[in-house]
Each structure stands twice: as C-alpha cells, then as structure tokens.
Amino acid sequence: MIEAAINETAARKGRLSITVSLAILILVGLACLLGPWLTPHSYDRVYRDYVLVGPSLVAHPSAEELDTSLAVLTRRIHADTSSYERHGGSLHLTLTSAKPIDPRVLRFFDHSDLFGPAQIIPGETNESTLAFDLPIRQTYFFFGTDANGRDLLTRTLIAGRISLAVGLLASLVALLIGVAWGATAGYLGGRIDTLMMRIVEVVYALPFIFLVILLVVIFGRNFILIFVAIGAVEWLDMARIVRGQTLSIKRRDYVAAAEALGATSSAILWRHIIPNAAGPITAYLTVLVPRVILLESFVSFLGLGVQEPLTSWGILIADGARNIQAPIHLLIFPALFLGLTLAALNQLGENWRDRTGAGGA
Amino acid sequence: MLRLFLTRIAAAIPTLFAVVTLAFFVMRLAPGGPFDSERGLDPEILKNVQHAYGLDLPLYKQYGLYLWSLLHGDLGPSLHWRDFSVNDIFSVALPISMQIGAEALVFALLCGVPLGMAAAIRPYSWTLWLARIVTLCGIAVPAFVVAPLLQVAFGLDLHWLPVAGWEDGDWRHQILPVFTLALPQIAVILRLTQAAMRDVLSAPFIRTLRAFGLPASHIYVHAFRAACLPVLSYLGPAAAGLLTGTVVVETIFAIPSLGRYFVDGALGRDYTIVMGTVVVVALFIIVFNLFVDLAYGLVDPRVRHD
C-alpha cells in the first residue's frame, strides 16, 4: 500500500518535472527560432547612442537621455537651444546662433538613434534661428544593449539559434557515427568487433577538448566545422551503448528467423536491430545534447566559435565576463538562457532514463 | 596486479602513438605557420629561421625526429617563447595546473561525498534540497559563468579576494579558481554517491546488519565502502574534466599555466608547445586511469585482477 503510494507520488513528480522541462525547452526553442524576427532590432544593428544601456521595460529615450543627447548635438552644431517643448511623441525645437545656421545641420539629428527625420517649420525660421519638429524614435531594449550598442535580446535569441543548432547537429553527427559503428561491430562480431572496439578504446584516451580546440583553431571558425568536430569526438559512448544492445538483440529469435528467411545483414541491422535499440539510444541522446551545447559554448568562450556579428551563448557570456566592470546584465541574460536549457534537457534525460529504466552515463 | 599494470601500459603505447601522430599532422596541415606576422618576414630570414628549427625538412623526417626526441623526453624548443624549451615552460606551468587540479579534486570529494551520503541517508530533509540545488547549479551553470560572478562578488564588491592573477600561489589567489573548477565535479560526485548509497542501503547485506542490531554508524561505514565504488571509477573522467576546466579557469583568472599556453600556442601555431601539451595531458589521463583501476581492485575484492 505505502509503496504504491510512494511510487504514485514519485510518478506524479516525474510527470510534473517532465512537463516543466518540456515547456521550458519549447519556450526557449520557439523564442530562439521565431524571436529574432519578432524583435524590432536586427542582431547586428549598432545603436551608437545606446551603448551599454541597462535592461528595462520602459521605452528609450528617457528624459535624461533626451537632454544629454540634445546638449551634445547642439554643441556639435555650434548653436544654443533657445526653447524646446515636448508634444507627446515629438519635440518642438528652436535653435539660435550668433552666426547664420545652415539648415543642413539637421542631418546630425537624423543620424541620431533618438530622433526621426526633422521637419523645418518655415514661418519661425530665419537667418539665425532654426525651428523644427523632431519626432522622437521610441525604442525598447528589454535586455539592454551590449558594449557596441546592439540589442541584447535579439542577440541572445540569435545566439540561441546557433547554440541549439550546433547542439542538435553535432549530436546528429555523433548519433550517425556511433550507431553505424556500434551496430556494425556488435552484429559482425569476432575479429572485426575486437578491432573496431579497440579503435574506440584508443580514441577514448585522447584528450578531446584539446583536439576540438586544435581542429577549430586550425581549420578556421567555420560553423559546419564546429559541429562536425564536436560530433566526431562525442560518438564513442554511443558506439559502446549500441554495440552492447546489438549483442543482446542479435540473439533474439526474430533475428534468427530473419536470418533463416535469408535477409541480408544490412536489412537485419536496419529492420530489427537499430529500431529495437532505439530506447537506450534516445536515453543517451538526452545526455549528449546538453553536453554538446556546453562544449560548444566552452569553445566559443575561448574565442574559437562562430564569428562576429553572428554569436552564440558562449560568446555572449564571454563578452559579459570579459568586462566584469561593465553592467552585469551582459552576463546574466545569456547565462540564464544557457542554464535553463541545460537544466531542462538534463531533467528530461533523467526522467526518461528513470521511466525506461535504460542506463547510460 | 602486475599483469594488469603491464597490459595497461602495453595498451597505452598505441594510444599515445595515435595521439602524437594525430596532433602532429593536424597541426602541420593547418594553414599558416609559427613565424607569420603582420608584415611578414623577409623570405631569406624566414628560410634561415625555418632551417634552424628543422621546419624545412620533409614532413616525415620532421615527424621521425620529433618522435625520436620525444622518446628521450625532449619536447623540443618553443617556437614563440624564444630561448625557452617546452620542457622549461612546462616545468613551471605543469606544477601549477596539477596543484589547482588536485586541490579542486580533493575539495569536490570532500563536499560531494558527504553531501551525497547525507541526502541518501535522510531523504526527506533539507539535505536533499541542498543536494538538489548543488546538483542543478553544477549542471546548469558552467564554469565560465560561475567564475566572472565570483570575481564580481568577492573581488570587486566585497574586496575579500583578488580578482585574478597567481602571485606564486598565494592562497588567496587559489580560492576562487579551485572553487570554480570543483563545482561541476561536486555535482557529479554528489549525484553518484547519492544514487549508489541509496541502492546500497536497500541491499540485503545492510538489512542483515540492521537485523543484527549494529549501531547506525557501523552500518554506514559498511555502506560507504560499497557506495564509493562508482565515485572511484568516476575519478578518471573527473581528472579529464578538471584538465579541460583548467583551460577556462586559467583564462579567466589569468593563471600562467598549461591550458593558457595551449590555447595561445594553438592560435600562434607554436607546434612544439601544442604537441607537448597534448602528449602530457594524454599521458596524465592514462596514468591516472591506471591508478584508479588499481585502487578499484583494492576497495572491491570482486574485481581484483590477480
């Protein structure tokens, strides 16, 4: 009775944590996939007037930002602001100067990230005064901006695309190599098996991270290369697991029956062995994907990942870490996304393994 | 025991050979060379420099020469740090790496094992929650996030500890790097201990001991011995993980140690430094795994190899 009750609570807890982690993953995935199109900024657009702005839900520019920007701009065009009023979304501005003002100086306002195109009011303008309407451009930086004045929200989402893509593709590479290698070794058996597993053992002792770094440094920071390099070093455990499964599956009656019916080796592998080994393979995939994402951000952190202006979570975190004197939001937001993804994937994997009872480190 | 020792050494030789070969040819296939600079050297001078380091020989000869000197324990001259041989550099850098790594490993064991045991012994108390939080942090917060946060908190805000640097191993400079390095390992060790302890505590021999009326402390000693096996077998991968972690930690905390030389060397095509690091790290992992296997035999009589 009691045991059944405990199992029941455990199962309910398991379901809850699966739901939560799945929800987090789907949210992060959707945000990264669709988010960059929905945010009003492009990931490589530089806002020179908004460098290192803190995260806020309020639209920029604020009153102080408006004042400083106006002061800077009027000083630059050697004029004084005689009056300025704010009407909702636009400014009514009158500039005066001892010398005649060339209306072309309004370009300075156009180029600012704070204002839209200026409209001269002809009636109030003469030689030494210039009156114009200046629409204020409202911009939102929910996550703030980085040291180059780029929107951190968009960059974090774009980075997520890269990180998740590398995670999935590299795992796919590892999956393909590992399954093919393990299934072949296990099914053929004998000397070929010994030889193939011997190779796995030798490769196992290689210092991986060092090899990945070496590969990435040497063959350039190519997006494709990064996940091929990572996938090419992460297939070993997969090969071992699949081989173990294959060894046990190939003794089953249905394999013997297939053999008796004259099925070829490759048909047996594809039809019977690989589908029946799918459980442990999926279980291991849930371990592999977060590991690969972590490895990619690690490589990126060292400055060896994809190249600017593209970015990944590791690069953003490295940026935040490099100038720790700068506002901490540069570090927090990408780290939050990475952390949530890793935690959710891990939780999912753990529950999966508990439910299927499949092992795997 | 001796037989295990010998077979493992015999198995290590092809591995090491593969490592050396792979690293050598990957490095040489890379575009660019160690003497590239913005302006470029005069071709005549470049030829002389390359001749001095034997880089103008055919590749197979260079490979043979490298293997030969490696057999004599000579890792060659560094191509970037003029007047230093790789052996010179490593004799300074390697002890630092090993010191940090060893301290982190000990710290991780001291935190992870007791916490994991406590969480397994009293599963419905605050220890379980503490264990959960630590595990989650270790998994979800990578070292390169922890390190800058620690730097900001303890270095810049509180001024308790130096932000970075090494200062010949002053203890205050070691705290943050060692903690950062240990955190992910604590999480894994904790989880392993917890799971193993939980399994062992429900094993028949523990029930028998309980039935005999042994005091709880005695029972836990017995359980501990059985439960530390997975931790022991994890020490090999843990050492490898620490070595990897050092690259990041050394970069962030500006510690003049192996990982830093490796990354700089790879970027600057310092062939000998890179080869040296790869060989040393591979050797280290192999030796460490061997020790772990030997220790395993000591703790668990079922797998004694003689």
Q: What's the CATH H-level homologous superfamily of the largest domain in chain A?
A: MetI-like
Count of individual domains of chain A = 2
The CATH architecture category of the largest domain in chain A equals Orthogonal Bundle
* Beta strand count of chain A: 4
Strand content of chain B: under 5%
CATH superfamily of the largest domain in chain B: MetI-like
- CATH topology title of the largest domain in chain A: MetI-like fold
As for the number of domains of chain B, it is 2
Pairing-aware structural class of the strands and helices of chain A?
Answer: alpha+beta
Main beta-sheet annotation of chain B:
none
CATH arch. level architecture of the largest domain in chain B: Orthogonal Bundle
Order of helices and strands of chain A: HHEEHEEHHHHHHHHHH
Q: What is the end-to-end distance of chain A? A: 33 Å
As residue ranges, the low-confidence spans of chain A are none
Name the beta content range of chain A.
5-15%
Q: What does the largest sheet of chain A look like?
A: 4 strands, antiparallel
Biggest interface, chains and residues, is: A-B, 38 and 46 residues
The counted number of beta strands of chain B is 0
Protein described:
The complex is a heterodimer of chains A (about 350) and B (about 300). Chain A folds into two domains: about 65-135; about 150-355, MetI-like (MetI-like fold, Orthogonal Bundle), CATH 1.10.3720.10. Chain A is about 65% helix and about 5% strand. Chain A contains 13 helices and four strands. By secondary structure, chain A is α+β, with helices and mostly antiparallel strands. By secondary structure, chain B is mostly helical. In chain B, about 75% of the residues lie in helices and about 0% in strands. Chain B contains eleven helices and no strands. In chain B, helix 4 crosses helix 7 (about 170-200) and helix 9 (about 215-250) runs antiparallel to helix 11. The mean pLDDT of chain B is about 85. The interface of A and B includes residues 210, 215 and 343 of A.
